[in-house]
Amino acid sequence: EALYYGLNATSGNMILADRKKLKTPNGMILGTPGSGKSFSAKRSIVGVFLNTKDDILICDPEAEYFPLVNRLEGQVIKISPTSTQYVNPMDMNLNYSEDDSPLALKSDFILSLCELVIGGKEGLQPVDKTVIDRAVRNVYRDYLADPDPEKMPILGDLYDELLKQPEPEAARIAAALELYVSGSLNVFNHRTNVELSNRLVCFDIKQLGKQLKKLGMLIVQDQIWNRVTINRAEKKSTRYYMDEFHLLLKEEQTAAYSVEIWKRFRK
Hints:
Radius of gyration: 19 Å
Shape: globular
Helix content: 40-55%
Oligomer: single chain
Structural class: alpha/beta
Strand order of the largest sheet: 4-5-3-6
Largest sheet: 4 strands, parallel
Strand content: 5-15%
Number of helices: 9
Distance between the termini: 19 Å
């Protein structure tokens, strides 16, 4: 289960380390443009694929990983405004959180999503967050009472619920979401229609474009978390590779959510 870690320049010997035995198995690949960061990640993926039975999941914002994934007979999910492959940002399983209420963690994710959608320097105000949290709890009520996949809400359900709220802030948030519900960027207003059961899965989001890419990265991150919770219950390890991670650190809310998920992944 050892992973490729580096090459001794003097002796030419390969240095191997088992991430699972490290206190913190998370890692970062840092370097200047063109220095081989993505190549290093691919080399690591091959090592994991050949030497472990772990699941490997990839967020691929620049379509750099799908040739390798195809060669290893993995699954490539291509998400774009014209794609017929969909992932639902509202997906949630009952193992979604190990210590908090699953709904509380999901509400935190939806807050981050709305923060990206609304934009602006000030982001979401306290009243905005209260309204969104209330709407999230309402739209999941039927699903939590009877966890039938057919009852899983979609973004349009959240939009409709926001319109029912009395506060003017709710109408403002709903107006911002409209573009992603019934407008030209409604790619995330569908139930998930891809089976995410392959051991090696790559989310190719290059064609989302600038407007949707950060949103796509956040939604993929949440989909990965769903997979991690399922694997955790089965005592199975999950490796998650995310390219261009810095894009999620540009907004305060998405950065805070990403750090929280980073800590949860470590567990």
